[in-house]
Write a structure and sequence with these properties.
alpha/beta; Nucleotidyltransferase, domain 5; five-stranded mixed beta sheet; 16 helices
């Protein structure tokens, strides 16, 4: 979690310029780490497309990205953001014209875009996970897959032991391995390649059976498809969804047998990700296999949320189990635009009723927490 400090929330915009997409989150951030989302915006200029072959960002992708950043900056200023933080990741970091693109962003928006190192990406992803999951006891692996790279953060009892960034992004690998006629052979080569790069960073003896947290569009889409296969609506938040290894494998096999056009009809999958989702899930499978994880747990929060906490100077501490649960519930409510004041009143009334009659009805102590959470979310849909 985050250490509580006195003070009012700051409205901050965080923009992540990735290899596949550009995403903005506009939120009110409290000193204790609570995040209430005011608005979100996303576009997919695919800055990293063709980067491996050319070594430079494509002019068309640059133009699309600049247009997106202008619109995001305008929105953030209209919404009275006190700070606008913009970071770029692997595509800009690796491109020969990356510095020129940073200068173009400054001219177009007035913003100074910071190019993150791979380790900085991994640390922000971990910071976000630390604020939303109970990572204070035991070993955990946090993986974040973007368009250009895979970030790994390995922690023990809430303390980072190792950070790594590997060139295993969904867009990068799709272009390299999955563009040919024999998709199954390409996928097999992709998985062997990922296995070789991942192996040195995940020693089996230390990390076998570690808890696995997965963030990024690959995994939120994976969760959407998993929930749809379970007959659940994907309108609900995917945050916290636990997906068994066997189901990840089944979904990967199903998607690999479809063309990108056919994948666009798969329930729970964002159509804009249909051509790169197989590569992303395949990399995730290799991480799961390496540490013999029985399941992965999806985080709807990633680098942008870590950037918000960093920008607000929230002091990171290990999550308290009860606080982490309530924070997750409240964050979900905020994403559904619930009335926090009204929901708190309903919660207080429900708990007073429970305390009065619950024991006589045979209710258990843990039922009280379930009721509290349900009361907070009673009007989210």
């Amino acid at each position: 979690m985050t250490r509580a400090l006195a003070g009012r929330p700051q409205r901050i915009a965080a923009i992540d310029v990735g290899s596949n997409s550009v995403r903005q989150i506009l939120a009110d951030v409290w000193p204790d780490g609570r995040i209430q989302i005011a608005d979100e915006m996303k576009a997919a200029p695919r800055l990293g497309s063709g980067l491996t072959e050319r070594g430079a960002l494509d002019d068309g992708a640059i133009a699309r990205a600049l247009d997106t950043l202008r619109r995001m900056t305008m929105l953030a200023r209209q919404q009275h953001a006190s700070r606008i933080e913009v970071v770029a990741t692997s595509a800009v970091r690796e491109a020969s014209n990356g510095e020129a693109f940073v200068a173009e962003v400054k001219r177009a928006t007035g913003l100074r875009m910071r190019v993150l190192s791979g380790e900085e990406e991994a640390r922000l992803a971990f910071r976000s996970a630390l604020a939303h999951f109970e990572l204070g006891a035991g070993r955990a692996v946090v993986m974040d897959i973007g368009g250009g790279s895979l970030e790994l953060a390995l922690s023990s009892d809430g303390v980072v032991e190792h950070l790594a960034s590997l060139p295993l992004g969904a867009l990068r690998l799709s272009e390299r391995f999955l563009g040919g006629r024999d998709a199954h052979k390409g996928l097999a080569r992709l998985r062997r390649h990922a296995r070789e790069l991942i192996r040195p960073h995940l020693p089996v003896r230390e990390w076998r059976g570690a808890r696995l947290i997965a963030s990024g569009g690959t995994f939120t889409n994976l969760a959407g498809m998993y929930l749809a296969r379970q007959g659940m609506t994907t309108a609900r938040s995917v945050h916290g969804t636990a997906i068994p290894h066997v189901d990840v494998e089944r979904i990967l096999e199903m998607l690999a047998g479809l063309t990108p056009a056919e994948r666009r009809g798969v329930p729970g999958l964002n159509t804009g990700r249909a051509d790169i989702i197989v590569a992303g899930i395949a990399v995730g499978m290799e991480v799961m296999a390496r540490i013999e994880a029985r399941a992965l747990q999806v985080s709807a929060y990633g680098i942008r949320e870590g950037l918000l906490l960093e920008a607000a100077r929230v002091v990171p501490t290990v999550a308290d189990p009860g606080q982490a649960r309530e924070k997750s519930v409240r964050d979900f409510g905020a994403r559904c635009h619930f009335d926090a004041v009204h929901s708190d009143r309903v919660r207080a009334l429900a708990l007073r009723l429970f305390d009065g009659v619950g024991p006589r009805l045979g209710c258990l102590p843990e039922d009280r927490q379930i009721l509290a959470d349900a009361a907070l979310l009673h009007d989210v849909g």
